[in-house]
């Protein structure tokens, strides 16, 4: 028991970290390439299908097309006989102008003239309403087959009324639209040369179309210039007549204004302005004088009201009045009378002077008003005259300019040249379609991409394990062995195959597994080995039997124990020992181990069968009696192989696991879902049971080759032929 515990600890130390392995997010280029290599058959098949379709398209379906090209050159320095750049101009030669001309060439107007000139409405290649020869392609075969099958089941479809023939205008428009698609116009870089190309089903027709369109384009340039010149001549004639009448009207208005108004020159008007300024200055001075005189009169009248001679004399400021005031002061007779008379005389003189100043002010005001009216009138007349003269001058300039252009246009009529000329006419067209190599290449490429997409989609949706590398990446555990499908029908025949074919690929695979298990712990090789899986049907029982038989080949005593007492599948493998006491009898102490085991001479092993019981199997394996029984087995046998139930179904394997030295976990090739494998290993980790390694079982060699693994894994590669019995 101590040795078993020590062995289990050693295995636990060798076990890989118990972590869930999340799928890698980075793109693995090698894995991507391996997936493509595994699906090479599908990719090649799709490529062959694409080759067949491309060949049919290139050599049977596609109608040959021929291209003819005419070259033209733009004459950007083509000067007219008379300079008419302001009337009509040609192509400037810049990029935008050249691109515009390329669109004009393919315009509906020019293509329509070509359709009418060559009567393309009668050509089935361009008129979509004319019948065409139908070509049956490989792609039409499924449609035709479905149509015929439908007719057989449902009867032929009812006859439809023939469509009404479109009107001629619609037919012409649709023909023009088809013809536009046959033409291309391109400029040659760093030059004024451009090409007109036509692509049709006939080489001569292509040349005819290209040359005809080039000629129509050249003639159209001349006709546009002629029409523009005629329109310009008519317009210029109308404008010259109108300008002449307008010029005469302006001149008459000037003459009338000169004769009906007294006009002055700008210099005289400036003199009047200066005179008006002088009068306004004198008027201002006179108004100031009137104010002063009026103030003096008010002061004198105020002094006269006081009857004080001294105040009157001081207010008057008159020397004679001051002398008389002295006589009044001395009291001379008649002095007061003379004083009053002089004071009244001063007041009268002041009033006269004030009245005279006011008269002068009124005269100045009248002069200023009269002069202002004269200035305003003369200014308005002068402005009107200058405006009429400017308008007359502008009209005269326009009249003379338009008259000159009219004469130039009249001379230019009949002397127009096209802005381009045909540099080289188109010759018989050369074939441009179908481009067979391109069609083949594109079909093959698309088919290969489709096949690649299908292979990658299949790989993406694949949820099972197909190779040891996948299993190791998924679980982080070492794959101890790869067991192929045993070519035998029935479980008894499987046992016979292992016995009769000791050098078969399956036997060698089990032998390799045996070696891997025994070397999993060199210091303490495992003696008690448990075989389990995720779910039933993964080959764990067959693996346990084969491993026991193989260990017996080493000359060791081997005991095979049926730990799956719920299903008891050993009855189907060993029908000759059905009904004997089994493991429950040994654990309960009812039957000794030596009496319960049965020896199989053909296989060289002892077997302890399972028994039906009402006691829960997990309780049986958890008992101390089972541990004691297992210690007894260890003492009696070199190796003990225990076949346990699947770990995701019942807990028996997790109960027995702590008592064994090695756990071999079986995964069925291309069958067990990855999630079940991960969940089964998680169940063992939850109880700290180390899994020694995994076995990829029931491998189909043909499937390995079909998935692209046939050249990578030992017995399934072509190099292994001749080493194993079939």
Question: What can you tell me about this protein's structure?
Answer:
- There is one protein chain.
- The chain is α/β, with parallel strands linked by helices.
- It folds into four domains: 2-21 and 476-720, 3-Layer(aba) Sandwich (Rossmann fold); 29-62 and 436-464, no CATH class; 64-217 and 416-435, Bacterial polysaccharide co-polymerase-like (2-Layer Sandwich), CATH 3.30.1890; 266-412.
- Helices cover 58% and strands 10% of the residues.
- It has helices at residues 2-14, 29-38, 40-61, 95-105, 108-118, 140-154, 168-180, 203-260, 266-304, 309-316, 319-330, 335-412, 436-461, 468-475, 491-500, 505-518, 540-552, 570-573, 583-588, 593-596, 617-622, 624-636, 652-656, 674-686, 701-706, and strands at residues 65-74, 183-187, 193-200, 420-424, 430-433, 479-484, 528-533, 558-562, 598-600, 605-608, 639-643, 662-668, 693-699.
- Strands 6-13-12-7-11-8-10-9 form an eight-stranded mixed β-sheet, sandwiched between helices. Strands 1, 2, 3, 4 and 5 form a five-stranded antiparallel β-sheet that branches.
- Helix 3 packs antiparallel against helix 13, helix 10 packs parallel to helix 12 and helix 11 (319-330) runs antiparallel to helix 12.
- The protein is elongated.
- The model is unreliable at 1-25 and 80-88 (pLDDT under 50).
